[in-house]
Amino acid sequence: MAEVHRRGALTGFAGLVGVAVLTSCGRSVESESFETSATSARSTNRARTVLDAQGVPTQLRAAVSRDVEKAASIVTSLWGDQSPWPSAGAHVRAFADHDAFVAAGGDRNARSVTATTTEDGTVLISPSLLESPSAARVFVLSHEFTHVRLGVRSAAARWVAEGAAELTAWHASGLSFAQYAPTFVRRVRAGDRPHGPPSDAQLDSDAADVQRAYQHACAYSDFLLTRTDPVGYRRFVVSAVAGGRPVDDLFDATFAATQRALSASFAEHLAKLASGRR
Ligand SMILES: [Zn+2]
Q1: Cystine design at 114: which of 9, 11, 127, 163 (Cβ 3.0–4.6 Å)?
Q2: What b/e readout covers 161-186, taking b as 16+ CB neighbours within 10 angstroms?
Q3: pLDDT reported for residue 272
């Protein structure tokens, strides 16, 4: 039995790249049939990653390999490539077969949860993510690799790691916030402006509006970035995820305010994101 960390998936994104990314990770589930993956003759080694893609056609395998490496480059250039990023390269397994994906620890609902990061930091790619556009693959893999880099287990509230993962993927995507998060932006324009980050319950993969909760976490993380600088924001995230000091203390020390004190400023930031001014 091994606990796995899930995230996922895609449905039609209205943005420039013509794909949509729906997130639903963070919930730990148990898999009875997780097996240690062996590097096979079908594995591809690149600078930062090792891709194992048995049964995947050669041309698709090459495209996925490029996307895997691109996403790893996005993450390590922002967050560094030190531990827990694996020194031998992050391990990715891509599955052409749904049953094999599920047997390895992937979600049964692979249409909506298209990638999984296991407890040992292996990223599992479902058949539906394999078939998605390259930009969607890079987005999802950038999100997952952020978890690999920060450590799959987080001591902080979920929004810290999920927001950091979404922010990393969104900033690298080149999409406007409205293109990335049309659902969330519609609600903000309608006057629904949350005062702080989303709760753990809102970010649960079984929550009714989990996609919007991930977009919300991304927006809050983008807001925090504007309250300090990239170095300060990254230091906060790394320390919060690692644990050892209360997150509220870290938050106050980094942003010189409590979350409550920043609620009006966050509302202003949301208005900027929704109007395209940020
Ligand atoms: Zn995640």
Answers
A1: 9
A2: bbbbbbbbbbbbbebbbbbbbbebbe
A3: 94
Measured CA distances, 13 to 132, 135, 164, 246 (Å)? 11, 11, 20, 37
pLDDT digits (tens, 9 = 90+) for 27-51: 333 222 222 333 344 678 788 999 9
CATH of the domain at 58: 3.30.2010.30
Based on the fold, state whether residues 106 and 199 are members of the same structural domain.
no
Q: Which domain holds residue 145?
A: 2-150
Expressed in angstroms and rounded, the spacing between residue 241 Cα and the centre of ligand 1 is: 13
Tell me, in angstroms, the distance from the centre of ligand 1 to residue 225's CA.
Answer: 19
How close is the Cα of 156 to the center of ligand 1, in Å?
A: 13
3-state SS assignment for residue 91: strand
Kindly state whether residues 221 and 98 are assigned to the same domain. no
CA of 66 to the centre of ligand 1 (A): 21
Whether residue 248 sits in one domain with residue 194: yes
Which helix (H) or strand (E) segment holds residue 90: the answer is strand 90-94
Whether 114 and 192 share a structural domain = no
Q: Which residues contact 194 (CB under 8 A, 6 or more apart)?
A: 216, 266, 270
The residues facing 2 across adjacent strands are: 31
Dihedral angle sign, alpha carbons of residues 235, 236, 242, 246:
positive
Distance of CA 41 from the midpoint of ligand 1 (Å): 30
